[in-house]
Write a structure and sequence with these properties.
Layout (H helix, E strand, L loop, with lengths): L65 H11 L12 H16 L3 E2 L5 E3 L8 E7 L9 E8 L4 E6 L2 E4 L2 H21 L5 E7 L7 H12 L3 E8 L13 E3 L7 H9 L4 E2 L2 H5 L8 H8 L3 E5 L21 H20 L9
Parallel strand pairs: 4-7, 4-8, 8-11, 9-10
Antiparallel strand pairs: 1-3, 2-3, 3-7, 5-6, 9-11
Amino acid sequence: MTLHDREVYRPKKTNNSVQNSTPSKQNETSVSQVIVEEETSEAPKMEVLANTSKIEPTLPQGATSRERIEEIMTYLTSDELKGRDSGSGGIEMAANYIEAIFKANNIAPYFETYRDNLSNFDKPAFNVVGYLEGTDEKLKNEFIVIGAHYDHIGIIEAKDGDNIANGANDNASGTTTVLELAKHFGNAKGNRRSIIFALFSAEEKGLLGSKHLAKKLKAQNIDLYTMLNFEMVGVPLVDKNYFMYVTGFEESNLAGVGNMYVGSNLIGYLPKAKEFNLFKRSDNYAFHEVFNVPSQTFSTFDFTNFDHYHQVGDEVELMDFDHMTAVVKKSIPLINSVANSMTKMIRYK
């Protein structure tokens, strides 16, 4: 997420910070960052190095689980990836990993290859874009984009000898969620509508990856139903009566339709998300601007539960893998319903 036109809100550290027992070790605005709720309120974001194969990780196996989530997160946030700065060798290592997971789970390249080279960034950089064709002869011509940015801010000013901003919550958490959703749907093969799984680069440079892809898809004249984005979902909300919130809550009926689909209070309204205009601060916004269809971001960052935004402290040991597993498992029936409904029920108001 990027919040560069306002001062970043940095809450004091509290006992609500999530600690995981497993040790491990800039410029428009995006969503990975600010979010607190008043329960009484009413709801109305390459220089490609030659040697990027230093690590050859084992691909995660099996169904979505805490262990699988931890494995993906640990790789994406490892120091060897140097903070996944756009245009770097580290982010290319992340891209290789993402591509391998797509290939292993029946997700085809949307374009000729998985890599969608950016036309609006001054270094070689690329989105990673996969595709799962729908099963219905008519509905397969309608598309859903499931996205997250996989870049972070790379090497920054050192603190306590550490200068690598590994970006666990921002946004290895969203990337991992999208990869797990791709694995599920790629193996289930039960989606009537076609699904594009997009991992964006250069979100931290001003939402450049999503801006590039949205314009490219618009030029193809695809029939986009909705764009669902995941950002900063690594720790749970504090004292809320819903599981996650959606930016632009008041813009569409996504929360209401989504909660109806899953039969629970999955999606809620966070006043701080509106106050900080988070709707415009992550990769959903490019699709809103270009397609004018419901394009929104899911998050569980609430301004009180995480205070390491764009700092070296955004490390994997602070992530709650049980919570992240629940994000994936609770999102599956939601997306399954969106992909299979006979009519487009999600609409802007």
